[in-house]
Amino acid sequence: MPAKKGNTPEKIKSAARAVFLAHGFRETSMQMIASEVGISAPGLYKHFESKEEIFSALVDPLITEIKGILHMAENEKDTLFAEGKSEEVWDKEKTHQQMLDCIYAHFDDMKLLLFCAEGTAYENIIDRAADYETKVMLRTLPRLREQGMAIPEIDAETISTMMRQQYRSYAELIRKDYTKERAEQYQKEIDTFFTAGWRALLGF
Predict the structure, then answer these.
(1) What sections of the chain are H helices per DSSP?
(2) What is the pTM assigned to this prediction?
């Protein structure tokens, strides 16, 4: 097949994104990506060794940005707890706005990560993110008790189950292709629901 002029890794990634979104990672082949770009499969391999490498090139920058937001939020919560401002940890507006800005700047790659990653190292990323948040909470609660907060003992499995459900709820705004405006309202509604539950469970 004749090669299109000006083929670059960016053009390959753009073509691969469309194929992955349409077929999912598992059902996508390098030949399919090459055909979408308009080059031969050997030509594609000059730029990327595998479809795994292409998929990673698409989603890794997004993951790095999300991790930065989450780590910043975690550090801010630790500071608030240390300063005795536990009430303020429930104000998530800043973090959630940053997250939505990130998601909607990379919406298709977020969809790849959440719903097209079966067969990759990123499979079940929603549950893995929830499990990370669970570990953070299980690490934080004993410290808060040491500070004198009357937080009841809570089973780790209960926390994990609730956290996974919360993260899956967030993912629905991407699955349903909400506009950013609708997503902002949806997230506020989800937060209202889950925050009330967490506060009742944790006692603060």
Answers:
(1) 9-27, 30-37, 41-45, 51-82, 93-105, 107-115, 125-146, 156-175, 180-202
(2) 0.89
